[in-house]
Amino acid sequence: MAAGGNAIRGTRVGSGPMGEQDHGYHADRVAVSYWDALGNETVRYFAAGVPDEEIPETIDHPHTGLPAGRDQKNPPAMSKAEPYKTHLAYVKERRTDEEAEQLLADALTQLRQRRGQA
Are residues 61 and 87 located together in one domain of the fold? Predict the structure, then answer.
């Protein structure tokens, strides 16, 4: 091919003049680094005008799923996995054995009354 070549090869369709640096207004923003317990860093960008108290202290790291905090030397601890609880386990947390016995007795009394066996 000749040295002149095709002038539009490698440019975007509808692009501005050659050498155009930005394509619109870019809002000012701040980069905030977060670290997880394994030392992995991730960066989140926030608008420059956002007050510091609105920027979250912790996030979930996108690759490890661990909580990540803004303090590199003291990242959030890895959360302990809670074992699956059955419905009965939750009920036992709310009721004492005496309350359970009383509820069972009341339910049996109501059942027997409906059946005419009281």
Answer: no
Nearest-5° Cα angle at 77, 73 to 79: 160
Pairing of strands 58-60, 67-69: antiparallel
Residues 6+ apart with CB under 8 A from 55: 32, 46
Q: Residues 100-114: pLDDT tens digits?
A: 899 999 999 999 999
Q: Give dist(CA 12, CA 25) in Å, integer.
A: 19
- For residues 32 and 56, the answer to whether their CB atoms sit within 8 Å is no
Expressed in angstroms, the distance from the first to the final Cα of the chain is: 104
pTM exceeds cut of 0.70 = no
Give the range of the structural domain holding residue 97, as residue numbers without chain letter. Answer: 82-118
Proportion of the chain above pLDDT 90, given as a percent: 50
Closest CA to 63 of 36, 30, 33, 45: 36
